[in-house]
Amino acid sequence: MRKELRLQAGVKRIRGWAVWLAAGATLGAAGCAAWRPASDPDLPPAAVVAQAPRVAPQAPALSAPMPPAVSLSIHGPPPRTPAEEPVPRPSAPPGDTTATLSSGSAAGLSFRSVLAVQTVLDRYGFSCGCLDGCFGPRTREALRWWQAGRGLPATGELDPATLRELGSMEDAITTYLVTQEDILSLAPVPATWEGKAAAQRLGYETVLEAVAEKFHASEAAIRRLNPDVPWPNPPAGTAVSAPNPFPSRVRPAESLTVDLSRKTVRALDANGRVIALFPCSVGTRVEERPTGEVTVVKCAANPEYLFDPALFADEPDAAHVGRKLLIPAGPNNPVGTAWIGLSLPGYGIHGTPRPEDVGKTESHGCFRLANWNAERLLRMVRVGMPVRIER
Question: Domain span at residue 304?
Answer without folding.
Answer: 1-80+249-391
